[in-house]
Amino acid sequence: MEILPVGSTVDRSHARAAAMGAAWADPSRPADRAPAPALISIVRLLHDAGQALPANRDEARRCIEKAAALVRGELAPGGPGADTARSTGPTPLAPWQVARVTAFVDANLSCRIRVDSLAALARLSASYFSRAFHATVGASPNAYVIRRRIARAQELISLTGKPLSEIALDCGFADQAHLCRHFRRIVGASPSAWRRLHGPAAETVARPHRPNRGTLERSAVTE
Question: What total of structural domains would you count in the chain?
């Protein structure tokens, strides 16, 4: 087996892994020539290592070590070790990646935010980034963006008297109905009902009217 220098030939290794995957997926391939499970695991691990290498060398090294163990026969195909190699998720994002991505999301809530754009900020592929982001935040990138849009909508509803249709566009929703659907799902109430409880008008209604001191003095003199 040819060992490719890490870093200098990542693109070439990706191309070879893709070609092998395409060949294995060919329905005309004879069943007796199908790759062994261990070989599939090795290629998968090396591919994951290439994806992680630009930003996470520890994760890349871990994938390479597991692939090497499979080559040496230390992990039997189908055994506990092989299951671990297949099921081990990506390493969580580094703090700088989280900070960069979340800052971009908050700064662009009124626009369309694509997963591949977020992945580029973290210097990862879209598929690897999505798994790493979920492992870090506990939600997919799309779900996180929706929640940040709703948080911004709550802020605008509570602090301004803007129409809901305008707030929906400011927060990146297609229209008011789109905002209402996600708002009700996440907050548990419609935007209108939430505004009655938390909007600027709610503060005025909740606060009792108190006459000022001058008014009281004038009333006393008149009496």
Answer: 2
Token output for 127: 């598929």
pLDDT (tens digit, 9 = 90+) per residue, 136-168? 999 999 999 999 999 999 999 999 999 999 999
Amino acid identity, position 166: E
Rounded CA-CA distance 135/198 in Å is: 34
Range of the domain at 111: 95-205
Query: Does 153 share its domain with 54?
Result: no
Mean pLDDT of the chain: 75
pTM above 0.70, yes or no: no
How far apart, in whole angstroms, are the C-alpha atoms of residue 130 and residue 127? 5
- Locate 25 and state its tokens: 């997926």
- How far is residue 187 from each of residues 78, 110, 171, measured CA to CA in Å? 45, 20, 15
On whether residue 215 sits in a domain, the answer given is no
The answer to the question of residue 3 being in a domain is no
Spatial distance between the Cα atoms of 199 and 158, rounded to a whole number of angstroms? 4
Nearest Cα neighbor of 180 from 150, 216, 143 is 150
Q: How far, CA to CA in Å, does 64 sit from each of 75, 201, 217?
A: 13, 60, 85
Angle at 141 between CA 85 and CA 152, to 5 degrees: 155
What gap in Å lies between CA 217 and CA 106, rounded to an integer? 52
